[in-house]
Amino acid sequence: MSTNKSVSLLKAVKPYKQGWRIQVRLIHSWRQKTIYGGDSLEMIFADVTGDKIHCSCKRTYIQRTQCDLRLGEWHMIDVFSLSNATGQYRTTNHTYNQIST
């Protein structure tokens, strides 16, 4: 049985569906520590069309993610969830934020 999933563009991903597969390039990353959220790894990804999305990595996955993702390299990501991008500080124009799990 084939398990090939088609690759979606960032503008197509929506939170109502699971199982998206995206091909993105890491263009920026930083560590962030907040009082209410703790330590997190924040990243900006871009797809082949230039659309960008902000991604937050949970504390338990920071070490593995930092080792696997290199700046400027292309990556296939298929395990993530989306949430609405709200608030005063938005790093991209994308409607949603990606949360790596």
UniProtKB/TrEMBL annotation:
UniProt cross-references to SUPFAM superfamilies, sorted A to Z: Nucleic acid-binding proteins
Species in which this protein is naturally found: Brassica oleracea var. oleracea
CDD domains per record: RPA1_DBD_A_like
InterPro entries: NA-bd_OB-fold, RFA1B/D_OB_1st
Origin superkingdom: Eukaryota
Domain Replication protein A 70 kDa DNA-binding subunit B/D first OB fold per the UniProt entry, residue ranges: 9-97
Protein name, UniProt field: Replication protein A 70 kDa DNA-binding subunit B/D first OB fold domain-containing protein
